[in-house]
Amino acid sequence: MKNKLLAGIASFTLLASTPLNVLADSPQTVIQNTQLEEKDKSLFNSEHYDFVKYSQIEGKLNALAKESSRISVEKSETKSALGQDMYVVTVSDPSAKGKFGYYKGLRKKMIKSPEKAQDFIEKHPDLKVPVMINGSIHGTEFVGTDAVLQLIERFATDNDEQTKTILEDHILIFNVTANPDGRIGATRFNGNGIDLNRDFITQSQPETEHMVDLITEWNPMVFLDLHGYVKGYGGPSKPGLIEPCTPPHNPNYEYDLYSKWAMNQAEAMEASIVSNKADYENTNTETSKVDYQNMEGTYIPQRDDSAGWDDYPPIFTPMYAMYHGAYGYTLEAPTNDWDGVQWTYDAVMGALSFASENKAEMVKDQIEVFKRGVQFDHPFHTEGHFPSAYIIPRDDQDQTATQKAVAHLQDNDITVEEAKKEFTYEGVTYPKGTYIVPLDQAKAGLANTMLWDGEDITEDTPSMYDISAWNLPELWGFEAVEVSSEDQLNVKSNEVRMLDSKGEVIGDGPYAIPNTSVESVFLANQLINEGHTLYRGSDGTFYANSSAKSELQTLVKDSAVTITTESIPEEAKQLSSQKVTILKDGGINKAQSHSGTKLALERLGFQVVEKTPVQVAEEGLGESDVFIYNGRSNLISYENSTANKEFGLQDAAQYEAFKANVKSFIEEGGNYLAIGAGASQASVKLGLSDVEVKTGGSNSNGIVQVAHGDSPYTAGYDAADIGFVYQPAWYSNTENKEVLSSYKNSEDFFMAGHWKDRGQAQGKPVMVKDGNILFIGLEPTFRDHTDYLFRLISNAIFAGLK
Questions:
Q1: Where does the Peptidase M14 domain lie (predicted)?
Q2: DSSP-assigned states of every residue in 479-522
Q3: Average pLDDT, the chain
Q4: Contacts 24+ apart (CB under 8 A), 117-125
Q5: Average pLDDT in the 322-344 region?
Q6: What gap in Å lies between CA 625 and CA 671, rounded to an integer?
Q7: Over the stretch 633-668, which tens digit does the pLDDT of each residue have?
Q8: Most buried of 28, 226, 364, 787, CB within 10 angstroms?
Q9: What is the CATH number of domain 504-575?
């Protein structure tokens, strides 16, 4: 068996290192766009190897499909952000081929009738269960996809007992390259600059939607997400990392059922790795300090630590899969080389063998997750944690956010119903058609995660790995009313089958377009871009002349916005198309910090130009009306690390030119927005303002209460409203400046998340205008997630018109 395994690895390693023109029998993807030129390495990786290029993958998969009757190769209908193909390979023994629909149907029955499904397992313990393996969601973590390709080759062609046993027990679903753009460009993020492994509560990116579709299609029993590179968390004898995680655990999991198996399965992966340690080549030990041949294990956070690698936010791929009952794991290989590939391969084999040995009991516990949801029985949760339902009222004027939420819930296997008649709850009467999300359903944990208020976990743990608050109703801008677990709604309802997203244009004009959503601002910008004259009232409402009727009727067909006839107020100001330039972060610290703002601007309907720091230094800002800085302070540094150097300025002369060009832009009337802590600090360093910038910890984040003044910059928001912070910022020395918004002056201004020592920010300014410069200490466009706050940016652009 070991010799077969090593032969398989060796043959594929040889294939991977073969020049492309030798693979004449394997059709290659022609990459014509220079932005998609395949790179050989990332400077962020300390080791390098000749990994399998994206352009080689399709040919290899097609060749294996011709050779083996066990595998099916599909191109997803969904393309990556930059239009690249995504490949799904399903491997099973030939007896299951042609029966995938049957197996998917059985997985759906687990959700609809979990008790019957458990009985079925008792009678049919030989049932095949799906396992999903996700390759290289971070493009620079090349080993994941390479391990996937080796695993596919083994299960397609080998006939040893371990291979046959695993195939008898499982259907293996491989998402071969979860991030094609990142693999091609050697970046962590996708072509839109989004870290896909932070996108699973939002699902803003096509690659994420593709993965969600696979998870909801198959409801896999085990989900393995293949990453790198973790070397030293466990000390020299325990390279790499395998979950389960440290606390805090998200309270919406049925964590007892996960924990029953997770540690044992993780240790089975560990054992598989260690048992093969003699086979590792230690290719980069001198550089990496990883000695595979003498390893004793790997770092398992829940076993080996107390905090710091948590599974609290539902933004990570395996954490999201856990809401679908999967036993989800992140696997972090130690090194970026073929030894790292083998570590990943061995870990997956350990996971699969463990799943084979324990399949029947593991799948029954997966079904138990769904049964608890359907029966509204959560024995390890505090009484009242789960409400009995959520009421999601309709908005008569603008249903954009509400309908987005309903569609999002449905896309995630969550049942949404609508009332068949008017009903009353706690003194409020809701009309027929009001949306209701009952919590006596299989995936109640995911529904509650998406709709609950969240919690302040500052005192629960020293720090968080990433965000700790994501309230969709508040951050997307719709209402979700909790129905107490002790109450039952007295209303008949039907499952929502179709959403009517058609907006309406009422009357013959002039027309009032509400400043109520991303979509409504997009409509206004579309009219401006089409040459229509638009005005903006002091309350943020947009006004169009009667001549815009035909255009509006076309635009609202794809929206849920109601446009009414209303006279244009005398105080309304005429708008013009704004040329918006955003400072581009090409990938400092492996991330594009400006990407959320860029996507928000595009969704709001603005035409956006990206300029790197070097371009701003060399070219200036041209005819830009608005310049936005939302990124790290070291974008204006010329002393960056080797890996970061290409994304910032290159020398002192460029720094002086950048500063002069930005100052000139502002002095000539340009509108400048500094969003977030890094941009605020950089702006002060540039000498643009004498405002003093204060910041919270770099891992502090969450939902806050803010107090807005009466201003065109905060139009469309309430005087008491909410914001989102990620490394929170606030300002002092604001006496001669216009304070537009502050954190609420109350001890409870922090609503949910993790923020130590936040008392120093209580009541302090968080949006400050200094001439043509606007400082925003919130993160209103965070990761294309905070839709409700996007309009703070469109307000700033329109309110600051020259």
A1: 50-355
A2: --EEEPTT------EEE--------EE-SSS-EEE-S-SHHHHH
A3: 93
A4: 117/367, 117/370, 118/364, 118/367, 118/368, 118/371, 121/360, 121/363, 121/364, 121/367, 125/359, 125/360
A5: 98
A6: 6
A7: 999 999 999 999 999 999 999 999 999 999 999 999
A8: 226
A9: 3.30.70
CA 55 to chain centre: 26
Per-residue pLDDT tens over the stretch 368-400: 999 999 999 999 999 999 999 999 999 989 999
Distance of alpha carbon 749 from alpha carbon 151, whole angstroms: 51
Give per-residue burial for 191-210: e unless 16+ CB within 10 Å, then b: bbbbbbbbbbbbbbbbbbeb
Amino acid at 370: F
Active site residues: 332
Q: What's the Cα-to-Cα distance from 163 to each of 91, 222, 345, 350, rounded to whole Å? A: 11, 17, 13, 12
The Cα 617–Cα 633 span in angstroms is 16
Question: How many residues are there in the chain?
Answer: 802
CATH number 3.40.50.11690 is the correct assignment for the domain at 579-800? no
Taking the domain 69-375, which CATH number applies?
A: 3.40.630.10
> What distance in Å separates the CA atoms of residue 801 and residue 794, rounded to the nearest whole number?
11
CA distance 117 to 363: 10
> Which tens digit of pLDDT belongs to each residue from 593-617?
999 999 999 999 999 999 999 999 9
pLDDT of 11 strictly over 60: no
CB atoms within 10 A of CB 33: 11
Locus of tokens 């463990």 = 354
How many Cβ atoms are within 10 Å of 124's Cβ, its own excluded? 11
Helix (H) or strand (E) holding 5: helix 2-16
Burial class (CB in 10 A: 0-12, 13-18, 19+), 579: middle
Q: Name the token pair of 373.
A: 């949801």
- CA atoms of 371 and 594, how far apart (whole Å): 43
- In terms of DSSP bridges, do strands 562-565 and 504-505 run parallel, antiparallel, or are they unpaired? parallel
pTM confidence score: 0.94
| Under 8 Å between Cβ of 720 and 773 | no
- The residue among 759, 729, 702 whose CA lies nearest residue 313 is 702
Detail the DSSP E strand segments found in 275-430.
310-311, 327-333, 389-392, 417-419, 423-425, 428-430
Q: What is the DSSP string of 254-268?
A: -HHHHHHHHHHHHHH
Q: What is the SS3 assignment for 608?
A: strand
Residue extents of the structural domains in the chain: 69-375, 389-495, 504-575, 579-800
SS3 684: helix
Q: Which has the closest alpha carbon to 550: 574, 584, 527, 521?
A: 527
pLDDT number for residue 143: 98
- Cβ-in-10-Å burial (0-12, 13-18, 19+) of 382 comes to exposed
**Does this chain's domain 69-375 share its CATH topology with 504-575?**
no
